[in-house]
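Q: Is it fine to ask for two folds in a single conversation?
A: Yes, each is treated on its own. Send the first.
Q: Here.
A: Result:
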Amino acid sequence: MVDRLTLSMRASHVLALALVLVALALAIIGAAAGDTFYLRLGTEALIFAGLALSVDLLLGFSGALSLGQALYFGIGAYTSTVVLMKVPSFWLAMGAAFATSFVASVIGGLIANRVRGVYFALITFGMAQVVAKIVYNTRELGASDGMIGVPVIDIGFGPFSVSAGSPAGFFVIVLATIMILYGITAYLLDTPFGRVLTAIKANEKRVPFLGYSVRQARMACYILAGVIAGLSGALYPMLRGFVSPELMFFMTSGNAVISVILGGVGTLIGAVYGSILLVVLKSFIGSWTEHHLIVIGLLFIASVMFMPKGIIGLVRPLIERMLLRRNGLAAKTPTDIEPGLSPTAEGARQ
């Protein structure tokens, strides 16, 4: 039986595949043309897409708005930098970033998940500001100047290796990493765990009557989002060669929230598309005028007013109907099939 969530996920997978194919084609063209700037810009957009993905996991599926998700992005970036400056190993840096972001998200989750709604948003914002200020004043971490001099590393895959200094090669590495994070998240959301999260968003008070723990589900979601942000942040110093406390500031978290809204809340792949769009727009508009934030703000307002479901929210229904026809369900529309929240979420809503 195909329910609405499963159908939506399949449509998102189609859009994810399209993104990968287009990105690989552009990487080949860029490598052939000897381009560096646009490949680096695309790599940065994909790195911040991982942060947006973690925000969409919380906001789109559990209904929790985090205004401090950059905290875990920054923790991953700083951990990666410290490791790389001592032992230039990609896998060790990613492993250390996973461990630190996991521990930090457990602590943060225990604090933030005690409240709901706007208080949750404010607490996540406050935690990020506190840690950013600590890093800003810690001389061992470069203080306000950040840490520079991250070495260019070779990323080994058995007998093969790819240099982080190769624009096309590192672009493909980052693309693969973000798509793996997307795939893991999408898989988990298409399990009973994902149904419980959707039920929590629909009606949190009903979920315990169905035999599920709201606290455990919200905590697991928060930790998963923190780890995704941390692993994405670990890639940043490999690209730019430095880190700074600004990675933990509110603007970084705010840009991730804007990316999710532009791409489509609760679409998952929309966070990736939204991040790419935002980073590219900021780069192009910033080259024309120093008032690019005004344009970004107007774009955000227009998106909320005229595209409340985001870019992917406009495209995905078309793909859903295509998938229905392909599976011999053309007589049904996405709203006619099994009520999408699954029996668990549907029972919670009533």
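Q: Second one now.
A: Result:
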Amino acid sequence: MTGAAAEAATVRREFARIHGRSPDGVWAAPGRVNLIGEHTDYNDGFALPMALPQTTVLAARRRADGLLRLHSAQGDGAITELTVADLVPGAVAGWARYPAGVVWALRDRGLPVGGADVHLDSTVPTGAGLSSSAALECAVAVAYDELYGLRLSRPELARVAQYAENAFAGVPCGVMDQMASVCCAEGAALHLDSRSLEVRQVPFDLTGHGLRLLVLDTGVAHDLADGAYAALRAGCERAAALLGLAALRDLAEAELPGALAELPDGLAPLVRHVVTENARVGRAVAALAAGEPEALGPLLTAGHASLRDDYRVSCPETDLAVAAAVAAGALGARMTGGGFGGSVIALVPAAAAGSVARAVTDAFAAAGFAAPAVLEALPSPGARRIG
């Protein structure tokens, strides 16, 4: 039995034990790492994420009585029971607001969806900047799409999940996390245009080039609902307005020096990051298309410096992980995700993977930080039915 089939069988059995009947199906949606293109999506920019092997797996069965009954293997054992017709932003707390928000968002679009019994299990680390919330939202979205015969496109499902996180969960995120979770393909990174939602699958053959991509989870949990993320987005939108632009995506790298001279000191660094980060995405895509994935290394490290110095969303743990990884032989490293904690990715020669991981662990110990968790990222498939 394959890994996905075994997961599906386990979740199916748990669903039957908890809800007392068999599910209509089992779906999975992955977390993601973003190779490059951070804080660009809500500026209509570009990003290059890839899906992780770690997923949220969800078994569900349609109900006719309008009840949404949610159970999580990572929860306290209780079933959260909600009335679909009564769902409104602010009415649901904790992890349940993410699946409930998707159901609310579908109804808010006028789609004829009702209740369901749901059991979910997840291997996506929470608070690690790997989009555990997007994986949960997208698993619900693809399940409901099939349960209720909605036939939404993949970008439409991503927009529903993003709307749920923005309007129901209260996190003003862009669409990159959700697009990665539903649209990524095995063996590829996803070149995303956040304005048009056009995507391109860019082959990313780590193994064939003797490379590995390590994910170093610093253990510093981040919470994008705490206001800092919203303040950054508001700053970018204000800067675009002052420059007479629809979004910062419309500012070319060559125009950056003149634009920065027109902006208040507090906004200029945000603009510099977004514009140079969009340019780094273009260079990364060109490197992968040319079959030169090792050329990503310097782009990762430059992206981290920009996030640290201009956007100011790193922390001592992520900065240390990047510095230690590069000193130990990584081709490049950077924090991934919204920041304020979370994880670092490091592109390393396969032969150096163990020594790089040990070097980061030793550096954390010397600084008095808890040991980081180390995962390996492989370009994996997006959301799908698995059982």
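Q: Anything structural to flag on that second result?
A: Two points. The two ends are 12 Å apart (CA to CA). Residues 3-202+381-385 form a domain with the Ribosomal Protein S5; domain 2 fold (CATH 3.30.230.10).
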